[in-house]
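Kindly review this record before class:
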Amino acid sequence: MTKTSRTAVVTGSASGMGSALCDRLSRHGARVIGVDRRDADILADLGTGGGRRSAIEAVLDVTGGRLDCLVTCAGLGPHEEPTEIAKVNYFGTVVLLDGIVGALGRGDSPAAVVFASNAASLTPRNAGLLRALEEGDEDGAVLLAASLDGTTVYGMTKLALVKAMRRRVREWGETGVRLNAVAPGPIDTPMLDGILADSFVGPMVEALPVPLGRIGTPDEVASAVEFLLDPTNAFVHGSVLFVDGGSDAELRPEAI
C-alpha cells in the first residue's frame, strides 16, 4: 500500500500474521488499531457476544465512526477446542464485519479483508455445520462442533467465511466498500507451531503438498493483504487470494 494516513483496524493483531500486517501497514504510513485478547489497542474476546459488542463499540469510538481498512485476522487453529473455533473464527468475524461496515462506508477508498484459509476448499464438507454457520445459528453450530474434530470445524468456518464474504458483495459494493478474502496455507507462525505439535492435526498439515517446497512467512501474507487493501486495486471485489505456495492449485487443478 502506498504511503498514506489511512486508518486500519486489524483483529488478531498480537502475533503471527496479524502482527506482521500491523507492522507492514504502519511502516507504510497507516494508523493501525489492533484488536486482540492481549497486547492490543482494543482488548476483546471475539469468541463471546459481549466481547464482540465491546470491540465494535471501541472501534467506533476510537475511529470517530470513520474507518478506511478492516482486516479480520483473529482466529483459532484446527488444534484448538472445536466449539471455540466455531465461536471465534466465524461468528467473531461476521458480527464484527456487519457492525463496522457503516464506519467503512464513511472512509476513504474503504476496503476489508477476511482471513480464510486454503482449508476452506480442501476440507471435506460437513453440511450440517456449514448450514448452521450460514444461517447464523451460533448455538446450533456450537452444539454440532462439539461432536466434530477441530480440522472439520476449522475448514467449515473458513468456507462459511468465504461464502459470507461473497454474499455481501452487492450490499457492500453499493456503499463503496470493497470486501475480499485471503486464503493462506501453512505459514511460519506460533499457530503453526501448535498445529505441528498436535499428534492428530500435525501429520495432516505436514502431508499437505506445497509446490514451492516451503512454508510461507507472515510478511508474505501481509503483502497480499496490503494488495487487497490498496486503493489502486479498486476493482478487486469479492475475490479470494490464495497465499499457499500452490497447494490449492495442485490439489484442485480444475477449480477456478
